[in-house]
Automatic annotation (TrEMBL):
Keywords: Cytoplasm, Stress response. It is found in: Cytoplasm. This is Class I heat shock protein. It holds the Pfam family HSP20. Residues 35-149 form the SHSP domain. InterPro entries: A-crystallin/Hsp20_dom, HSP20-like_chaperone, Small_HSP. Its main location: cytoplasm.
């Protein structure tokens, strides 16, 4: 029971949290929860080295079985997965749920020089690293032409 009555009809408000997320949930009424919306845009860095395109995604707490890395037709790299919400037990009372949960999906169009058959992925310490090797850029062969006359 709350120490301070709720003015918004929320029976779970408390003195330490006068504006709980469930009162100010900007995604209320949408087909996804705000927690899922927070995770939906998993943060990804993409850098290009002379040898490869390297993608790094922060996915703390996920196991490799919960993440899928795919290359689709048209050179599309797709990273997806889902973080499940912890289930509340009968004798437990949650005061705040801030860790994001839900499905996520990120897609990137790879450049022409990507070797799609050699993509590698590794998940270590909550960071997914996807390495897409690049084809060697062949310098155009220059042929000298003799000038007659």
């Amino acid at each position: 029971m709350s120490l301070i009555p709720s003015f918004f009809g929320n029976s779970q408000s408390n003195v330490f949290d006068p504006f709980p997320l469930d009162v100010w949930d900007t995604f209320e009424g949408f087909p996804f929860s705000s927690a899922a919306a927070n995770f939906a845009g998993a943060r990804v860095d993409w850098k290009e080295t002379p040898e490869a395109h390297v993608f790094k995604a922060d996915l703390p707490g996920l196991k490799k079985e919960e993440v899928k890395v795919e290359v689709e037709d048209g050179r599309i790299l797709q990273i997806s997965g889902e973080r499940s919400r912890e289930q509340e037990e009968k004798n437990e009372k949650w005061h705040r749920v801030e860790r994001s949960s839900g499905k996520f999906l990120r897609r990137f169009r790879l450049p022409e020089n990507a070797k799609l058959d050699q993509v590698k992925a590794a998940l270590e310490n909550g960071v997914l690293t996807v390495t897409v090797p690049k084809e060697e850029v062949k310098k155009p062969e220059v042929k000298a032409i003799d000038i007659s006359g």
